[in-house]
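Give me the fold.
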Amino acid sequence: MKAKIGDQLVCEGQHVGDRQRIGTIIEISHSDGTPPYRVRWSDGHESYVSPGPDARVQSAPDGQ
């Protein structure tokens, strides 16, 4: 998994009925774009994340 600042991290729920968590990647620890990432979640909280197999990166829209 590789990302750049501004990309979205989408984590699927682990249990039936769990919602997706969506956040914006605001910091990348490695120059090659590999995890861990610092993410600002849609609820405003920030955390460092090493995404698992239930996560994917969506590229930032052009211009962001």
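The first strand starts at residue 8 and ends at 11.
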